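JOB MANIFEST
job_type = single_chain_structure
chain_count = 1
residues = 193
[input]
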Amino acid sequence: MIILLVVIGIIAAYVATTYNFFVITKTRIQAQVEELGNQLKRRAEFIPQIADIIEINTDQEKKIYQMITDARKRVNQADKEQDPEKLFKAASEIEQAIGSIQVLVESNPELKTAEVVIEAQNNLRDTQDKVMYAKRTLIDLTQSFNARVLGFPSNLVAKTFGFKVQKGLDLADTKEAISVSSEEMINPKIKKG
């Protein structure tokens, strides 16, 4: 009888611990999505500052400014909806705009050395690092959660309480990195964006 009570106690403790893991990790995943949204919004706010500094004059530069404006709207909308996929899609658009702005700055020696531009780029770089950290943390949390949902015996607890696999991040920049031809392995080529 004592052995049966001990076994029941161990099982109950395992179920409670596993349930708490699922609840806590799911909450942390949601919090990380919110943090990522905050950092993406912050990054989106820096880009127009840089665009204003470089004084947009040409049609090409005006197209870049429009791209920035559209991407900022999408980041704000995705953040309101707390939708990670939309956040990453909008983030990808912002990254394209950042690349275009960097080309403009680098092509103008006066801008390249301007203290205001350097400070804005440093702030943007700091935010980029925070975005990457938020992405990495979100990926790690999702992976840990999904491993427990799928692994035995924690999958029994997950099924009992209705926990399901969390959709992983579908990043546009990782799709290209997934497939590498054998020729690319032998003779790698760097493509300019």
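[summary]
The chain has one domain: 2-186.
DSSP finds eight helices and no strands in the chain.
exit_status = 0
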